[in-house]
């Protein structure tokens, strides 16, 4: 079963750097660095002050569409929308349900 582990810390700029591990049991399949700006967090997860849950949901979205090895190793969160135009609306819907 695939799981996602996310650890975010404040970046020197206006945002966070998140380390993401995609796991299969105890085995790390892939690792990723995701940068989240404060404006992106406010737009995609209004009222949240920590991007961890947003990044977890974003990786859930990605893993429904591609294998872990196809996900970029480092990217800014809005890059997902360039590959999957439905990303932002899907993430906003999942936030309201969450």
Can you summarize this structure?
With 98 residues, the protein is α+β, with helices and mostly antiparallel strands.
Structural overview:
This protein is an alpha+beta fold and 98 residues long. It has one domain (2-97). 36% of the residues lie in helices and 34% in strands. It is built from four helices and four strands, in the order βββααβαα. The protein has helices at 38-44, 52-63, 79-83, 87-97, and strands spanning 2-10, 15-24, 27-37, 74-76. It has a four-stranded mixed β-sheet. A hairpin with a 2-residue loop joins strand 2 (15-24) and strand 3. Helix 2 packs across helix 4 (87-97). The relative contact order is 0.19.
Query: What integer is the average pLDDT?
Result: 93
- Oligomer status: single chain
Record the strand order, biggest sheet: 1-2-3-4
Rg for CA atoms: 13 Å
Shape: globular
Largest sheet, described in full?
4 strands, mixed
Overall structural class, as computed from helix and strand content, comes to: alpha+beta
> Helix fraction?
25-40%
Unreliable runs: none
- SS element count, helices: 4
Number of strands: 4
Euclidean distance between termini CA atoms = 21 Å
Number of domains: 1
The sequence of SSEs as H and E is EEEHHEHH
Strand residues, percent? 25-35%
